[in-house]
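From the methods appendix. Each design record in this collection lists the tokenized structure first, followed by the designed amino acid sequence. Records were kept in a plain field format so they could be parsed without special tools. The example shown here is representative of the layout used throughout.

RECORD:
FOLD TOKENS (253 positions):
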């Protein structure tokens, strides 16, 4: 079987420590995949490697059948990315930025303009078409970043915390649009700490902790009837949470 995303022993070391450690992923096309893990687990580092932002220390990966080391340009044409740190050209307006990105992906001018108009309307940015991006709020920048990731109709979307900072209305729109992309055959690979959203959207999940995969498979296989947050805590933290709180906020102090 040819996987949409496949990695073997994918590793990234910083200062002699493997922050992503021998990661072996296998993700079928058309999967809505949640990549979960606590802060510092290695999620963003993995996305950066799979999208060519940083080079792995060792290991290999194939994206849509293309080798990550040898065919990065072919891969970049076919994927869309919402990175952890937004990198928008802030001295442009949203329509200028999206049309530019569309043209960079080789869309004919009229197609880029039409898709820009539609994305801006659907993502609720139509009241800010004359505003420079540097004046956008956090949630508006996140929505624009998703628009830019989708304008060329990519086969895989890599989304690092796409719901962080967006309001409930935009969150619903984003869910609808992502579902639509998946039904069309796209693979969605997302990280999120909002487990209710993951539970609602994802068919498959993996959990990474201290750079190592603890679980990979169908969502039901992980949760087994329990809530996802409980399954997550059990796996990552052996069910432990801090019960003590802050000493100076305790009763009688
Ligand atoms: N450029 C870097 N130099 C050194 N260490 C790094 C660098 N980037 C990430 N790390 C370390 O790698 C580990 C994994 O970081 P990463 O950003 O991938 O975590 P994450 O799972 O995305 O966490 P979060 O949920 O907080 O976004 C962390 O311990 C982090 O400190
Ligand atoms: Mg991260």
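DESIGN:
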């Amino acid at each position: 079987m040819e996987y949409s995303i496949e990695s073997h022993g994918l590793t990234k070391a910083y200062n002699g420590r493997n922050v992503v450690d021998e990661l072996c992923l296998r993700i079928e096309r058309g999967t809505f995949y949640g990549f979960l893990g606590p802060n510092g687990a290695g999620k963003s580092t993995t996305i950066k490697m799979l999208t060519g932002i940083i080079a792995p220390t060792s290991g290999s990966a194939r994206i849509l059948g293309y080798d990550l080391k040898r065919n990065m340009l072919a891969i970049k044409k076919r994927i869309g990315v919402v990175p952890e740190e937004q990198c928008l050209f802030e001295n442009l307006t949203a329509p200028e930025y999206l049309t530019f990105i569309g043209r960079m992906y080789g869309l004919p001018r009229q197609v880029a303009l039409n898709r820009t108009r539609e994305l801006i309307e659907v993502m609720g940015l139509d009241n800010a078409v004359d505003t420079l991006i540097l004046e956008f709020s956090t949630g508006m920048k996140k929505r624009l970043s998703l628009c830019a990731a989708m304008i060329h109709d990519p086969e895989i979307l890599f989304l690092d915390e796409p719901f962080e900072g967006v309001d409930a209305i935009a969150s619903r729109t984003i869910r609808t649009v992502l579902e639509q992309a998946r039904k069309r055959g796209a693979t969605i690979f997302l990280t999120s700490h909002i487990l209710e959203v993951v539970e609602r959207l994802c068919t498959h999940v993996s959990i990474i902790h201290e750079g190592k995969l603890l679980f990979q498979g169908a969502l039901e296989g992980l949760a087994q009837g329990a809530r996802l947050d409980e399954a997550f805590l059990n796996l990552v933290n052996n069910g432990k949470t801090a019960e003590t709180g802050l000493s100076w906020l305790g009763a009688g102090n």
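APPENDIX NOTE: Residues 14, 19, 37, 39-45 surround adenosine-5'-triphosphate (ligand 1) (CB under 6 Å).
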